[in-house]
Structure formats: structure tokens, C-alpha cells
Amino acid sequence: MRKISAFIYIIILTSASVIFTACEQKEETIGDIELPPALLFSEAQEWAVIESSYLRLRERAEAGSRLVTTLWRGYVLEIISRSPNKVFMDDEEDYWYQVNYDGLQGWVFGSYLSIHESREAAETAARVIRND
User: Fold this and answer.
1) Superfamily holding 47-130
2) Domain ranges of the chain
3) 92 pairs with which residues across the strands?
């Protein structure tokens, strides 16, 4: 009987040990998570209005770059950045501007734009250009 009691006691201790170690909380480490960029509600420093009849929005600041879309006279563009140097294109010298129009981003050549310090000023200029 003593052997059976000792055997049962060992089984209970072993089972309890297994249960408690299996239930032990282990700290999980999660690798780096890369989140998409957040949309920030910020006021652009500069705005532009297209003065030519149309303007090509390009992927890069190059005349031969892939066309994203065609933008039309009087559209108001949010300026994101500007190329560091002026370039010559079609006998004109100006900067390339990285712009946002209705969620589309790309580059446009500056000779066909008027630049404004506020959205309100750009919208006023756009109404004049469009004869609204």
C-alpha cells in the first residue's frame, strides 16, 4: 500500500509540476511592425494654379518620366516640395514641383504654374483663370 501511495504522490506532483509550468506566462516578443504613413492634416506652405491649358503630372521630375495623369487649366495644386535646381525645358527655365492634386502625387514643371502662399489666394487666382 505504501508503494501505491508513493506512486500516486509522485504522479500528482509530476502532474502539478507539468500543469503549473505549462500555465506559466511567458513574455512574447514581437518583431518590428512597420505601419503605413499617417495622413497628416497640415497646411501646405505653398499652392499653385495651372495657367496653361493642360499640364502633365509625372512620376519623377523629368520630362521623359511616366505620365500619371493630365491636369487642366485652373486646377489648384498643393505643393509638397521643389527640385533643388532650375532646369531648362521648352526654352523655359524653372523648378520641378512635387504636388498633390485630389490624392494624386507627382511632379509638374513650374513654368506653367502661378505660385501662391495660401490656398485661398490660389483659389481666387484659379477663379480668375477659369473666368468663374
Assistant:
1) SH3 Domains (2.30.30.40)
2) 47-130
3) 89
